[in-house]
Amino acid sequence: MVASALYIVPTPIGNLDDITLRAIEVLKAATLIAAEDTRHSKILLDKLGIGAVKMISCNDHNEEERVEIISNEVNSGGVVALISDAGTPMISDPGYKLVSRLADRGVKVVPLPGPCAAITALCAAALPTDKFLFIGFLPVKDKELSDKLESIRTLETTTVFYESPRRIENTLEKLAAIDPKRKVALCREMTKTFESIYRTDVTSLIAYLKEHQDEVRGEFVLVVGPYEKDATATAADELSAKAKAAMQQLVGPLKAKDACKIVAELTGESRNSLYDYALSLKQK
Ligand code: SAM
Q1: Nearest residue to 70 (alpha-carbon basis) of 104, 118, 42, 107
Q2: pLDDT for residue 124
Q3: How far is the CA of 284 from the centre of ligand 1 (A)?
């Protein structure tokens, strides 16, 4: 017996066998299925032998409009299942606004655990799992992308990103510009026939992908290891790329001391480290 509620139902990210028994039970009992893309999800439901069920779309564009229909369905005793194209709804997929509005109205929401590309990749990456940050998709514009990657430069936790084959090489180049030795794991096509997990550092991964362009396709999760302090690096080496770039512009036109003052205020970096960097620029 499946009680009346909105159920968050994860679906496979590549291997149909990863659907859980509970997910099947809820989908079979559903009086309404809200799917990111109804046509896409019909293929899965057909494979599971779930035929005639009322479906509505629930995506980034209409999620808030669905609140009324879904809360009425649950309040009148129905079982509603929210599914996305693959994996766990709401994880870089629609559903957050819907759940938040339903929670405000006191409608019962039941989450089911199940497939999620981020967690699957994290478990395969061989990088620390005690603390991690999930960022999802990175910004598309170069400047925002670099800023986002810069924000994890000294982060002492593992970070998980979703990335597309079109952008992966550019993203890795930007990361290498910030921290060339950073440990990474590229988890590709997980749970599918051509699953591969490549664990290395970012510079070696760039070289590997240049040589293996046939592997720059499919679906990726990029897992980036925590910041590791280089024992041989000086405080000046550890300055952010932004601070170094600003110093390169200002030292020369301005006295080193004045350049350090401005850049320290702008970036929060220490004046002493900036001054050491200014000296190294002058020596060059
Ligand atoms: N909600 C989904 C989840 O729980 O994993 C993620 C949806 S997001 C729109 C899709 C992204 O997840 C893909 O672009 C890719 O980065 C990642 N992804 C999904 N399936 C994957 C797989 N089998 N292998 C690697 N990455 C995958």
Answers
A1: 107
A2: 97
A3: 46
CA–CA distances in Å: residue 229 to residues 150, 226, 234, 237: 15, 10, 10, 11
- Distance from the CA of 194 to the center of ligand 1, in angstroms? 15
Residues in the chain: 284
Record the pTM. Answer: 0.87
Look at residue 30 in the predicted model and tell me its pLDDT.
97
CB 88 within 8 A of CB 13: no
Contacts of 24 (CB under 8 A, 6+ apart): 48
User: How crowded is residue 228: how many other Cβ atoms within 10 Å of its Cβ?
Assistant: 11
Considering only CA atoms, which of 202, 196, 201 is closest in space to residue 215?
A: 196
For ligand 1, pick from 13, 18, 90 the residue to mutate: most ligand atoms within 8 Å of CB.
Answer: 13
Q: Does 93 sit in the ligand 1 pocket, CB within 6 Å?
A: yes
Low-confidence ranges of the chain (pLDDT < 70): none
Query: Which amino acid makes up residue 241?
Result: A
Options 3.40.50.720, 1.10.8.60, 3.10.20.30, 3.40.1010.10; CATH for 5-111 is 3.40.1010.10
CATH architecture type of domain 117-224: 2-Layer Sandwich (3.30)
Structure tokens at 236: 């000046």
